[in-house]
UniProtKB/TrEMBL annotation:
Membrane-crossing residue ranges in chain numbering: 15-34, 185-207
Statement: the UniProt record of this protein carries the keyword DNA damage: no
Subcellular location: Membrane
InterPro entries, per database record: HATPase_C_sf, HATPase_dom, His_kinase_dom, NarX-like_N, Sensor_HK_TwoCompSys, Sig_transdc_His_kin_sub3_dim/P
Reactions listed under catalytic activity: ATP + protein L-histidine = ADP + protein N-phospho-L-histidine
A Pfam family assignment: PilJ
Annotated organism of origin: Dyadobacter chenwenxiniae
Keyword Kinase attached: yes
Taxonomic lineage from the root: Bacteria, Pseudomonadati, Bacteroidota, Cytophagia, Cytophagales
Protein name stated in the entry: histidine kinase
GO cellular component: a single term: membrane
Bilayer topology annotation: Multi-pass membrane protein
Keywords (A to Z) from UniProt: ATP-binding, Coiled coil, Kinase, Membrane, Nucleotide-binding, Phosphoprotein, Transferase, Transmembrane, Transmembrane helix, Two-component regulatory system
Molecular functions (GO terms): ATP binding; phosphorelay sensor kinase activity; protein dimerization activity
Length: 476
């Protein structure tokens, strides 16, 4: 009997040691997987940061290229060549799947990422070569301008593809987390099975000892309560982490919207400055030369030609010069009307209506006090004028209207701008995409962007065969 008890005790001890080793092995395996996944996530965050920085460097290089080609002064002291080298080296590191870090190199294996980088390479090479042309002092100005045009054409595609790559990095990181979670579940189940087998094979033979069983049940109950308390605390911490993650994502989204708005504002401001410069060059340069040419021609008009045909051709030449002068003045006015800065938005809109009506033959009315200047900031004046100009051009070109009306009024600290026509109209649903974002159609995207930059509101009222009303409200 004693020998049998010793044999049972020895067997129980062996089973117990084996069970402990299995549990320890499962626990160590779980810790190893968690540690490995954390390292991978750290590497993933490094790759996402580098990929995101590529977008920023591309935009910054584009900005410097625009300033370089336009020969405009700026406060950005960063060397173009240095930024371009960092941009190129980072892209090659990402494309070659070897990203330098402090403790070596980060590598990854992903057919999807390889395909994305392969698809991105022609776009990157095209932009990089054009950046080199823009930065080359030997290249002529027209070639630089053409290179800049290609850069601006390719940059949105590059940014879109980089966004997909960043999202793919994030997606693969999330998949690795899911795999870890599944493995953890498997390890937990295996641990539970081992513990269950341990209870069946080891502790069941000693159930006859009542005191020990009662003690074991008491300890198990206390352990269960403690585990429940820890589980409750862990759940609370998980909820807090989820809420914090949601808050960070919301802040990231708001930051992205603010970045997009600032970028759009900078682009529009640059366009306005370029229009102003070009208008001055037309007016003060080409316009003055054409006027001088006309004066010389009128002096020669008194000379009698022997051939009547030559006399007639000379008169046609003077008429053509006058038409070119008028066209140049009209282009200069459309680019940056001087009446806007001299007399304000009311006077500029009235003159815009008169000139457009004369050119198009459509009856265009202006409802507002042209002799009264509404005090507002210069960017707001330009923005509202461009909105009215874009909407009026849309109505003239696409509405098939015979009457258009522009109304501008001030109600306390709010400006109301309305452009109405009696044309063919359209369905509002046709103006929106499935996501509810205005399509780039008939200048509506430009109008919407300018309204947002003015912190204003835009409303479109239109029905088929019933005309269209565009209303913009802006606070002073």
């Amino acid at each position: 009997m004693e020998r049998l008890d010793k044999s049972v005790a020895s067997s129980l001890t062996r089973f117990y040691i084996v069970a402990l080793c299995v549990v320890a092995m499962l626990t160590i395996s779980g810790l190893f997987l968690i540690r490995r996944t954390i390292n991978n996530l750290n590497h993933d965050s490094r790759m996402v940061n580098v990929a995101g920085r590529q977008r920023m460097l591309s935009q910054r290089l584009t900005k410097l290229a625009i300033l370089n080609v336009g020969q405009m002064k700026h406060s950005d002291s960063t060397q173009f060549s240095a930024l371009l080298k960092i941009w190129k080296d980072s892209h090659e590191n990402l494309a070659n799947k070897k990203l330098p870090v402090e403790n070596g190199l980060v590598t990854w294996k992903s057919a999807a990422l390889d395909s994305m980088f392969l698809d991105l390479m022609p776009v990157f090479d095209s932009i990089y070569l054009n950046f080199l042309l823009v930065n080359d002092p030997i290249v002529a100005a027209p070639a630089k301008a053409q290179a800049l045009s290609l850069i601006l054409e390719k940059e949105p595609l590059f940014l879109a593809k980089m966004d997909k790559i960043v999202f793919q990095f994030d997606k693969e990181s999330f998949q690795r987390l899911e795999n870890l979670e599944r493995i953890e579940w498997i390890l937990d189940i295996m641990t539970i099975l081992v513990l269950f087998a341990e209870g069946i094979l080891i502790f069941r033979p000693v159930v006859n000892t009542t005191r020990r069983v009662v003690k074991m049940l008491t300890e198990s109950e206390n352990a269960l309560q403690l585990s429940n308390q820890k589980l409750k605390e862990a759940n609370n911490q998980l909820l807090e982490a989820q809420n914090e993650l949601l808050r960070v994502e919301e802040e990231k989204y708001e930051l992205q919207l603010a970045e997009d708005r600032i970028r759009a504002s900078a682009l529009i401001e640059g366009q306005e400055e370029e229009r102003k410069r070009f208008a001055l060059e037309l007016h003060d340069g080409i316009g003055q030369m054409l006027t001088g040419l006309k004066l010389h021609g009128e002096k020669l008009k008194s000379v009698q030609f022997h051939d009547e045909k030559n006399q007639k051709r000379f008169g046609q030449l003077l008429a053509l010069i006058q038409d070119i002068i008028q066209t140049t003045r009209q282009i200069s006015f459309n680019l940056m009307p001087s009446v806007l800065s001299d007399f304000g938005l009311n006077a500029a809109l009235r003159l815009l209506c008169e000139q457009t009506a004369e050119l198009s033959g459509i009856k265009i009315e202006f409802d507002g006090d042209a002799n009264k200047r509404i005090e507002m900031s210069r960017p707001m004046e330009i923005g509202l004028y461009r909105i009215a100009q874009e909407a009026l051009n849309n109505a003239v070109k696409h509405a098939n209207a015979d009457k258009i009306k522009i109304k501008l009024e001030q109600n306390k600290n709010r400006i109301f701008l309305e452009i109405a026509d009696n044309g063919k109209g359209f369905l509002i649903s046709n103006l929106k995409s499935e996501e509810g974002i205005f399509l780039t159609r008939n200048g509506m995207e430009n109008i919407r962007t300018r309204t947002q930059l003015l912190n204003g509101e835009m409303e479109i009222i239109s029905k088929v065969d019933s005309g269209t009303n565009l209303i913009v409200r802006v606070d002073l």
